[in-house]
Fold:
Amino acid sequence: MKTEVITTMISLVFLVHFAITISPNAQPSWLFSLMSLSLAVVAVIVPLVVTTTCHARKNTDATTTIPGPRGWPLVGSLLVVSGPLMHRRLAALADAHSARRLMSLTLGATPVVISSHPETARDILSGAAFVDRPPKAAARELMFCRAIGFAPTGEYWRRLRRITGAGMLSPRRMAMLRGLRCRVADSMIQRVADQMERSGEVAMRALLQRASLESMVGSVLGLEGDAVCEELGEMVREGYELVGMFNLEDHYYKTSWGPLMDLWGVRPMCRELAAMVRGYFGKIIQERRLAGDCHERADLLSYMLSLPEEEKLEDSDVIAVLWEMIFRGVDVVAILLEWAMARMSLHPDIQSKAQEEMDAAVGVRRRRAITDSDVPNLAFLQWILKETLRMHPPGPLLSWARLAVQDARVGKHVVPAGTTAMVNMWAISHDEAIWGDPWVFRPERFAAAAAGEEVSVLGSDLRLAPFGSGRRVCPGRMMGLATAQLWLGRLLQEYRWLPPPANKPVELAECLRLSMEMKTPLVCRAVPRRRGGRPPAAA
Ligand code: HEM
Structure:
C-alpha cells in the first residue's frame, strides 16, 4: 500500500508538471514539451503497473508452487485467455503447464486459481473457504447482490435459498407447476407446426427461449400472455448482454483504479435497466397485493407476499429475487435444449432410439403425450441430456466464479484468502482419462454407469457437475433438468427432426458469453410423427 501511495504521489507531480507545460501562458521548447509528455505518459503507466503487480505479487508469493503462466505486467494473462472460447484456452494452458489439478494465473490485477480436475474441483466447490462470489459490476448494479447469486454466504443468503426452495424449487412446489410446463410444451409444439407450415423450417433458439420465458414468468410471477413475455423477454435479453459484456473493472476491482476501468459504460447501462426492472416488478407486486389472492396461487411472488411477518422481505429485495429467478432460469434451459436438438438432428440413430423408448413407454397407436411421471422410465432420454451437459455444459466455467473468504487448502497447495477460484467443468468433462472417447456424442456411455455406478449430474459427482456443487450449487437444478427432460421428450415424441436445408448446416461452434451458446443459432426441419400431423394436448 505504501509503495502504491508513493508512486501515485510522484505521478501526480509529473502530471501537474505536464499540465503547466501545456497551459496557454507557457512557451516551452519542443524538446522540453517532449520530455514533459514522456513523463506524463510514465506518470499514468507506472502507478497502474505498480498497483497491479502489488496485488498480483501478494498472490504469487503465496502460490509460487502452483504452476501457471507468469503473464504480462499490468494485464497478467487476461488478453491470452479472454474471449468466446475462454474455457478451451484455459484448458490448453493447463495442459501446457501440466496444471490440470490447479493452475495459478493473474487476470488483470486479480489472482485466480483454476481447477480442471474432479478432486481439486471438489476442494473448491465443496470446501468451507470458497463460498462467496468475486465482485462483478454488472451483477451489483442489476441487484444480484441482494439476490441469491451474489449475496455473500450468510444469514440473508440462507434465508433466500430457503424461501425460493419452499416457494418454487422444491419437489412439492415443482409438482404444483407441472401443468404449466405441460401447457408451455403444447404451445411450443403447436408453434413448430405453424413455423413448418409457414417457412418449412424452425428457428429453434427463438422457439426455446419463448417457451423458457413463458415457463419462468408463470412459475415466478403467475402471469401468462404475450405482452408480459415480450416486455420481460426484452429486459432479460438486455441484462444478459450486459452481464456477459467484457468489463475491465471486474479484473481490477482490487486496485484503486478499478472504477475507472469501466470503459464501455456497463455500470450506467445496468443502472438504467435496473430502474426499469424495479418499476415493472414494483407495479406487479402492488397489483398482486390489491388482488388479495396470494394464498390461492402457486407462484413464487404470491408465496413471498404471504410469508409470515418475521420472514417477509423488503419489496426491493423481493424484486431482486424474482428478477434473478427469471433471469437465471430463462437462458440456461433454452441453451441446453438448443444443443440437445442440434445433436438430435445430427444423430438420427440416437434420435430414433429415444423415440422408440417413448413409444414403448406410452404406446404408439393411441399415444398420449409424455409427462413428468414418465421420465423416470425413459433412461435413454435422460442419458441424452446428460451427454449434452457433458459435451456442451451451458456454464463451462460454472457461470460465476467463487471467492476464498479464508486461506484454503486445494490439493497440496494453500490458496490465500481473496483469491478467485474457477472450475473448468468443460475441461473435466472432456478429459480423456475420465471419459474414454470424450469427443464422441454417445449417450450409451451412461448405461454402464446405470448398471452399478450412477453418474449424477446434480453435484455429488465432480466428473460431471454442470450445476456446480457444494453450498452454492444451483438451487434451480431440479427444475432446470425436469423442464429440459419433459420438453426434449415432447419435441422428439411429436416430430422427427432433420438438419436444415443444405445452405444452413448445423454448426457446433461455441460462443461463451454469460453461458455457452451455439455460435450459429440452430435451424431445423420437423416432420410430424403421427398421422394427420397435428399433436395432441398433454394428458
Ligand atoms: C440447465 C439449467 C441450469 C444450469 C446448467 C445451471 C447452472 C448453474 C451453475 C453452474 C451455477 C453455479 C453453481 C456453483 O457455484 O457451484 C448456478 C447457480 C445458480 N443457479 Fe442455476 N443452472 C440452471 C438452471 C437454473 C434455474 C432454472 C434457476 C432458477 C429458476 C437457477 C438459479 C440459480 C441461482 C439462483 C444460482 C446461484 C446460487 C448461489 O449462489 O447460491 N438455475 N447455476
About this structure: The longest helix spans residues 30-63. The chain has a mean pLDDT of 90. The chain is about 55% helix and 10% strand. The CA atoms of residues 59 and 111 lie 6 Å apart.
